[in-house]
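question for whoever is on the cluster today: can someone run the full assembly for these? two chains, 705 residues total. i dont have access anymore since they changed the login thing
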Amino acid sequence: MNLSELIHEFILALIEPGILVGSIGTVSFINIANSTFSLGLVFTCISLLYFALNADFIAAAQLLVYVGAINVLIVFAVMITDQSVSSDSEKRGIGYFTALGACSILFLTIVCIFHKINDFYSSSIHQSEYLKLNLFEKNDVQNIGYQLLNKFLVPFELASLLLLVALVGAINPARDEDEGKDIAENKKKSFVSSTSPRDKSSFF
Amino acid sequence: MNDINSFLSRLNSTINFSTILPEIILIVGLITIVITDLVNKGKNAIFLYKIFLISTLVSMGILFYQLISVIAFEDLYTNNIFNNLFRFFILICSFISVLLSVDYVLCSKISLAEFPLFKISAGLGGMILSCATNLITIYVSLEFLALSSCFLSGYTKRDIRSNEASMKFLLMSGASSSSLLYGFSLLYGFSDGQVQLDNIIDKISFSQYLPIICISAAFILAGTAFKLSLFPFHQWTPDVYEGSPTRVVAFFSVTSKVAALSLFTRLFRLIFPYLSNEWHIVVELLAISSMILGNLIAVTQRSFKRMLAYSSISQIGYVMIGILAADLENGYASMLTYTFIYIFMNLGTFARITPFSLRTGTNNIRDYAGLYMKDPVLTFSLVLCLLSLGGIPPLSGFFGKHYLFWHGWKAGLYISVTVALVTSVISIYYYLKIIKLMLTKTTNLVDTLKTYEKQKSLVSSVISTKLKSSVEMAMILCALASTLSGLFMDPIIKITRNTFF
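^ ran it for u. tokens below:
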């Protein structure tokens, strides 16, 4: 192995235990706040993995979206809810063993598939074809930007409008209506003389 | 400056802006609404509705002009007659539903600027969905439509049923669009990275990957059948329709169904032509069960809105026969004509429920008893629309159904057409039940109707007559359309004929 492959292996050897430790921590911490932080560790390590695999746009998107938005949201939700420390039960019923069996079968299936794909792609014919694709010469981000503004212009602009509508729609039910309460009280006074069926229904 | 010039010239060569001009006008209207609301600080809200109306009308005018002179345009979406007709339908839906909701402005206690905003955005999403041929554009516009409809249905946030309706709608539409996306991802992967629908068909080899294509078809069917509320995916419809405000239900009962119809037709026609036997059988099954289920359960309903929800499930079952019966000489003519008539019938019925529920505050069918004595105009127009929904001649619903079933029988769908005929008769029962209730003079009136005041207005009389007239205008428009369209059936069929692609 030459130097670059050695460095590559070294970096991967650093990142993968991070993912393992983070995911085990997410599942087995009793305090939920700890488990959300270890989820953040998992997402960060996956993003570093994308960097190591030379997909810089996806790595940046993973950092921004998963760590910066989704994980922060989960942390907010966890911090707001009042969580008492749950007691852990040592008893491992039948559900535990069924889940253990299913997950191990799934894991073995995935490992087998990866081995088969590895054998398939490491044969010389496919390697030369793969090298012909010249994937490493184009700049990832530039390519994506070019496509976004030329081929996918309509969905791009539509997604920006979608963000606007989503923002307005998210704030709309959540905001406090002070004027609404005053108008409601005034109308209630004028409705004293009105008929009873109108009070039955809420709003049509 | 050089960069910007070259960028603009390259942009002009790739995208011909005149083809998406109607959508651009709607976007301009949307931004104008937001800005005027910010500037006016919540006063003078009728102006916002006027902006909405003007932008819809202008965009309809431009679309009409485009319908006459078909402009060819590649890449992002194509402008054949099928797509343009659907865009036109959605604009009609938006226009009429704006007329319905103008009185919302002064009678509600909730802030008002977001309502036209969401309606325009839902109309915009529907329009772009009608002509998208790109997997990404389809998904983004579908999500746009679903999200705006969800916000609309949760608009009256003080009402618990409205909150429940929007929660159900959001969760279920999220689940179904994720299954749609999975189907798309299978197509994307196996066609070597192509996103355009035409390129997918070219690159994917049907013989080699047949099981994958079947799986992808199943997922896409699940995703689109949700929006159409076909049989197993219809569970959200009654609850959402009952909980949302009536004007909102009027709007998205037609808009999202029309947009979903165009999506369904385009996807299944373009991508899975080799599978046409398989998916024909499945869709036929779904259509038969939706018709049976919708009509049978609608008989037992006590709330008007819920009954209309189940009846709209069965109407979509009829329209599915039109999709299955498409052939070379007629195209999708039967489906398009029935959709056109369905828009007016459905919006007309909702246009009459809205003022009734506003004046009496109830949606129970029993409370409609003896309405003939109190408000003959409302009664008469409601009778016309309900009879048209049922399919009684000489109203246009009859002509639409007649053409649909004749087309289906000619295409060999004997079971579906028989089931459709039987269930149409059942549907006439529950429509006539309401009509009989309204027209009979009962000796002891129901409590709610004793206090029915026709001229009820919450604000000064000048504005109230103007508002009343807009809803009345919508009512009269829909009533006329649903009666007289039957007479203009031939020109409508001739326009919708050349739509096979």
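summary bc i know u wont read the tokens: Residues 160-190 of chain B form the longest helix (31 residues). Chain B touches chain A through 59 residues (CB under 8 Å).
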